[in-house]
Amino acid sequence: MKHIIYDFLIENGFTPQVASYLNMLALLLLLLIIALILDFIFTLIFRRISNVVATRTKTNFDDILIDNKLPTYAAHIVPLLLVYEAVPYIFTDFDYVSNLAEKSIRILGILLSLYIIKSFLLSIRNYLKTIDRYKNKPIYSYIQVFMIVAWLLAIFSIFATITGVSFWKFITGLGAASAIIILVFRDSILGFVASIQVTVNDMVRIGDWITFEKYGADGDVIEITLATVKVQNWDKTITTIPTYALISDSFKNWRGMTASGGRRIKRSVIIKASTIKFLTPIEIQKLKDIQLITDYLEQRDEIINTHNEQNQINKEALINGRNMTNFGVFRKYLQTYIENHSAVHKDMTYMVRQLEQTPHGIPLEIYCFSKDQRWVNYEYIMGDIFDHVLASVKFFDLEVYEYHTTTDQLK
């Protein structure tokens, strides 16, 4: 074919030099047309075969390969090899151009290999996401690590191809530049090490609720990559955290709360110390009308009276002997109220406790767990409990501390 075009041009009066150039351009055009036709044919064949195979297999992995265009990329290999083999024949009289064309095709082959590898790895990631035990694993981090290594090898191969130096000699020559490479890829190396530790120690999974005050993150983890962890905050904003920060800084993972089946309620009201007092028999009798503590008061009152009578305690002064206080009875009332609350988790710790006195009063804390972990429902349950607490204080002749300004005092 080459000689036919060349001879035809010479017979029609072209000089040998011009005939050589025109012959080369004609063959190059013909080769490109044949390569495009073959690329179209092989792409069509690969797609058809892969679609047939995908419909006949039970696994969806081959469907994912098709979605990530792996058959399409693989179809480009045959036309590329054809062009590479034909280049020496087309540029026989142009050694420099032939050498340049061969290097260009090699570089295209390296890049095509990268796309094939990436497509295959992404297919593996998408497939593993369909398996429950791998859904919350940072698989994409490992794919990124592999792709970084692949890109580095590809870049070294391209430089070796351009310079004509052996690949291994080129790699050996980079030993002196290793410090610079480590500096350039510092974050990637740190991220790689961090992602391994995060996975091995099971510190964070996709879907975990984490709180990271340093970065202003408070929400669900939606993505874990080599370099970053993405957290969707409750206000729907996205916070990006460096992966290595998960092992270098302190953060809170709420997974334990989610797995426990309850969500903690830990809040207190401050009772004015001046309103705490011993209860008189009349006041005790009046409090017996409160059903939740009727049995408790009757039993307790009997025990105390028996003790005081046996020890001949002078009860003209309430401070003598054993007594009940309105604050203690109120604590018992709240304890009973929590025990009977339908939304409180009874298999987890629940109590009402008195905390250390403050300049403002005595904190009375309710510590329990709600059965419903959903945020809105949790807030409703906690609000319902403390609505009742605040409303019931006055029945025990107690008062909740409120800060009064100078204006309030003048009124």
Radius of gyration over C-alpha positions, nearest whole angstrom: 40 Å
- What kind of sheet is the major sheet? 5 strands, antiparallel
Low-confidence stretches: none
The number of strands is 8
CATH class of the largest domain: Alpha Beta
Helix/strand order, N-terminal first: HHHHHHHHHHEEEEHEHEHHHEEHH
Description:
This is Mechanosensing system component YbdG. Pfam families: MS_channel_2nd (PF00924). It is a multi-pass membrane protein. The strands form 2 sheets. The protein has a 5-stranded antiparallel beta sheet. A 3-stranded antiparallel beta sheet has the order 6-8-7. The protein has 411 residues and is α+β, with helices and mostly antiparallel strands. 58% of the residues lie in helices and 11% in strands. The protein folds into 3 domains: 1-133, no CATH class; 136-260, SH3 type barrels; 264-410, Alpha-Beta Plaits (2-Layer Sandwich), CATH 3.30.70.100. The chain has helices at 2-11, 16-56, 61-67, 70-75, 77-90, 95-128, 139-163, 167-173, 178-184, 186-200, 245-248, 255-260, 281-287, 291-310, 326-339, 375-392, 406-410; strands at residues 209-212, 217-224, 228-233, 238-242, 252-253, 263-271, 351-354, 362-370.
